[in-house]
Every structure is written in C-alpha cells, then in structure tokens.
Amino acid sequence: MKCSQCDRPALYQTKKGALLCLPCYGQMEDIRLRQAEASFREQLVNMAMINHTEQNMAAQVGMNLSPHELIPVAAIAAAAAARNTRMTNINITGAQVGVLNTGDLAKIDAAVTMTKGSDAEELGAAIQALTEAVVQTPDMKADAKREVGELLAALTDQVAGKRSKPVAMQVLKGIEERAKGVNAVWDLAIKVSGLAAALFGLG
C-alpha cells in the first residue's frame, strides 16, 4: 500500500483511515503539535487580558485585587512547561521539549514502534536510547542536537522503508561526527552504527 500523500510505502494509518509513510506521518505530527502549542499560547494571552481588564475595573473604583483573585497565568504556563511529554517510546521532560524538531521526534518514535518484533528491533531500541541521551546531555550544542535528530529521523526512514546502503553510510557518518567527543552519547552512537551496519550489510 502506498502513502496517500506520496509514492512511498504506507506504514501508518490515522484514526480517519489515511495511510501515511514515516516522513509524512512525522510532518502530520509536527503540524498537530505546533497547532496545540499555538492554541495554548493563545489561551495564555486571553487569560492575561482578562486579568488586565479586571485589574483596570477594580482600579476605577479604588480597589486592589489580590493575586489569588486573578487567573494564575504564570503558574499555568510553568506547569505546562514542566510536565512530562511522553510519546509511545521516547520519554523527554517538559523542559527538554523543543530541543529536537517535533516532527523528527515523531518519526523516530513511530519507527521504534515499527521495529518491534522485526529484524531491526535491537537497532530501534538503540536509536531510542541515543535520541533520549542527545536530548538530555548538556555537553552538546543545540544545533548539533537538532542535526543528530534530523539524521536519526533519516536513518529511521531507511530502517522502516527501502534500505539504501549509501544513504545509511552517509547518515551514520554524520551521527558519529556530531557525537564524537560527547561522552554521554558517543558509546550509544557507536552501538547504533554497529547494529545498522549489520542490518544493512555494510562492510
């Protein structure tokens, strides 16, 4: 079966029945998450405006509103930022959300699920561990983290779809280059490379 949006093989079916490949699924999840974030930000702005209006009305009659009489906008925003974000497999805390592109995270997470029970299950678990380590380590710059996320998403495209040795080799090289010197992720990157090499038959 083909993806309803492109010519790649479909690997995921939405609740409405649309068939999607891994890249298109990642794009869909990215859009969904961005819409949810925009809606939440709009709600915060509306709550802040309500507080402002009530404070102005109270001031006109010589009253001062205490903090507990207003909507705790800052507390709501802080609670949302601190909450855990749990995908099907990858676990990251609220403070780390946004370190990697949400679409890349969605693709990686979906691919880990798809590898379970297949010849790539061990590689999927290693990719999951590496993704979480990249997000959590303070020893890697934000740009490098995003680049590794993009490369891991590209690798999952190969694992879950048509496997291309040249593409896989280039992606693995890129991951190793960015992980080099970062103790928290280097060993995991080498493990991913070794498992991928075995799966793709790389010499």
Number of domains: 2
Range of helix content: 55-70%
For the biggest β-sheet, the strand order reads: 1-2
Number of strands: 4
Sum up the structure in keywords.
two-stranded antiparallel sheet; single chain; elongated; two-stranded antiparallel ribbon; 203 residues; 2 domains
Walk me through this protein's architecture.
With 203 residues, the protein is mainly alpha-helical. It folds into two domains: 31-82, no CATH class; 88-203, no CATH class. Helices cover 65% and strands 4% of the residues. The strands form two sheets. The chain has a two-stranded antiparallel ribbon. Strands 3-4 form a two-stranded antiparallel ribbon. The longest helix has 39 residues, at 22-60. The chain is elongated, with a radius of gyration of 22 Å. The mean pLDDT is 83.
Please provide a brief summary of the model.
This protein has helices at 22-60, 73-82, 102-115, 121-136, 142-160, 165-179, 183-200; strands at residues 12-13, 19-20, 85-86, 91-92. With 203 residues, the protein is mainly alpha-helical.
Topology of helices and strands:
Layout: E1 12-13, E2 19-20, H1 22-60, H2 73-82, E3 85-86, E4 91-92, H3 102-115, H4 121-136, H5 142-160, H6 165-179, H7 183-200
Antiparallel strand pairs: 1-2, 3-4
